Amino acid sequence: MKKLIIIAILLLTSSIAYSQNKNSNYCPKTKMVTDCLKCHTVPNFKIIESGPDEENVYPIPNMRIIDKKGYLFLKKIDDEEVMKFLNYLESKKINYAVIEIHSPGGGLFEASRAVNLMSHWESKGRVIETRVYGFALSGGFMLFLAGTKGYRFVSPYADLMWHEINTIEMFAIKISTPSDKEEEARILRHLQNVRNTWIASRCKLTKEELDEKIKKREFWITGKEAIQYGFADGFIK
To answer: Within a 10 A sphere around the Cβ of 119, how many other Cβ atoms?
Structure first.
């Protein structure tokens, strides 16, 4: 009789286990049916590990804080994004920022504002490390140079580029006088001179050498050449 009772209990237990296993949400470790998946993964039911910055709610999606360093991935030249990133680090008392630039460029004034925001944040004894794995062109090149000297790193075959300032007029019918053209050229020359003077202060080239390298053409260099010219300080470790 006892044997029959034991067999019946075993059959009942097996039946319950089988019916639970039919449910894809059943966890063989915790025996829970639904809530277990909040902390375990299917199909191996390993415990879900939280990321190192899981508790942080960021003002922008492409930033992270890991080991007391702030990381930003920058594809477009967005001065507001740079400002939110740096302000958030300041609010968390984080003094080391890493900005990876992977950008074809963007607006001149947006890039200039981002550069000035970076310079202001760095002036308080902080470090901004800039990196280029892929490419940093035009305004992206400016943001790369704005990193703290000694902390601007590149991959050997990354691409960097600087050029003369461009203006675009699409489908525009415009009547101009010689004076109009002279004034337009004066303004463009002013904007170019300001940027080239600043860039020359961040590398080994003189402003005159830089002027010549971009005259009527784009100045393309690899990561290796960026180190030779003093635009970059070393390879990404």
So the answer is: 13
